[in-house]
Amino acid sequence: MMSSRIGLGSVTRRVAFAPVLGRNQTVLRTLIPKRGVQIQSLPSSASEEILNAQRLKRPSSPHFTIYQPQLTWLSSIANRMTGGALSALLYGFSLAYLVAPDTFDSAHIVEFVAGLPDYAKYTGKVILATPFTFHFWNGLRHLSWDMGKFLSLKGSYRAGYAVLGATAVSTVALVLM
């Protein structure tokens, strides 16, 4: 009763009900030797340089070196690359037309292409038709996935090979036009 009036009641309860490890924690802290760690503050640019140096030592993503290439992820990468290339070509030509409309009008382009040798025309057609047709057919494949079709492994590979076949046939058809 007297201890509760003085204010020692909660302290004695805490000590009595504390786990044994908690009571001996201060003893353990003094017995375990501490490491000598020196801390120095660095400017933000120095810490950024240290992080960049550490990042350079890390290996690149392991999927390039440890996984066997699969049709699904190769076609996904190719779809992104063809989309980026076609977009760059469209925006590049549009900006060129805005900068010099007299140089990049239809008459000058037709005149330039007409002056090229046949092998250059066919090579140019293949270079333009292949990414266009692949991106088109692979886009239809992605739309079929959105509708819930060809989601199994077998169906995914069937659709992937169908995309490659349709790309080859339509590229040849566009080149021979």
What does this structure look like?
This protein has 177 residues and is mainly alpha-helical. Helices cover 75% and strands 0% of the residues. The protein contains ten helices and no strands. Helix 7 (71-99) packs across helix 9 (118-146) and helix 9 packs antiparallel against helix 10. The protein is elongated. It starts with a helix and ends with a helix.
Radius of gyration: 34 Å
- Count of strand segments: 0
Order of helices and strands: HHHHHHHHHH
Q: Report the structural category.
A: mainly alpha
Task: Sum up the structure in keywords.
177 residues
Show the helix and strand layout:
Layout: H1 2-6, H2 9-17, H3 20-23, H4 25-31, H5 44-57, H6 63-66, H7 71-99, H8 106-114, H9 118-146, H10 153-175
Helix pairs in contact: 7-9, 9-10
Could you give a short description of this structure?
The protein is mostly helical and 177 residues long. It has helices spanning 2-6, 9-17, 20-23, 25-31, 44-57, 63-66, 71-99, 106-114, 118-146, 153-175. 75% of the residues lie in helices and 0% in strands.
